[in-house]
Amino acid sequence: MEVAAARGLTGFVGREDELVQLGSAMQSAAGGRGQIVAVVGEPGVGKSRLFHEFTRAERMPGWRILKTGAFSYGKSTAYRPVIDLLRAYFEVSDRADPQEIRDKVVGQVLALDKELASTVPALLSLFDVPARIRSGGH
Questions:
Q1: How far is CA 90 from CA 1, 86, 107, in A?
Q2: Tell me: the pLDDT tens digits for 102-132?
Q3: What is the C-alpha to C-alpha distance for residues 120 and 106, in angstroms, rounded to an integer?
Q4: Which pTM does this prediction carry?
Q5: CA separation (Å) from 133 to 65, 94, 129?
Q6: Which residue in 7, 37, 68, 106 has the fewest CB atoms around it within 10 Å?
C-alpha cells in the first residue's frame, strides 16, 4: 500500500460508513475503552486502502500507528502477527539478543505503568527469551 500511495492513489469514495465506524472505535479507545476492530472481506475489496485512508496522519494526530499482517506461510508460528506487532511496538529487531529484548520490553512496559510489570514474563515468552533472562538473570 505504501508503494502505491507513493505513486499516487485514485480517489477514495464509497467507504464513508466504514470510516465512521472506525472513527467511533477510535473515539472509544481515546476514552479509555480500547478494542479490536476486524475488517473482513474478499481479496481486492479495499481493506488495505480503507486502513491506509483511516490511519493518515491528519485523521489521527498524536496516535502511534503499528501495522502487522498475517500470511498463510506463517501458520506454523503461533501468534506470528501478534509477535510482529509487539516487535514493532517495542522496536525489537529480528536479530536482537535476549537481553536486549528484555531491556526494551521491561523499559517500555514499566514506562507505561508499573502495575503492568506482571505482564512482562508473558510478553518475553512470545519472543522466546529464556526463563533465566525473563526473570532478570543474565
A1: 23, 6, 9
A2: 999 999 999 999 999 999 999 999 998 888 7
A3: 6
A4: 0.67
A5: 29, 18, 7
A6: 7
Choose among 84, 43, 91: nearest CA to 67. 84
3-state secondary structure the chain: CHHHHHHCCCCCCCCHHHHHHHHHHHHHHHCCCCCCCCCCCCCCCCHHHHHHHHCCCCCCCCCCCCCCCCCHHHCCCCCHHHHHHHHHHHCCCCCCCHHHHHHHHHHHHHHHCHHHHHHHHHHHHHCCCCHHHHCCCC
Cell of 88: 514493532
What is the distance of C-alpha 51 from the center of its chain?
A: 13
Identity (one letter) of the amino acid at 59?
A: R
CB atoms < 10 A from the CB of 64, how many? 7
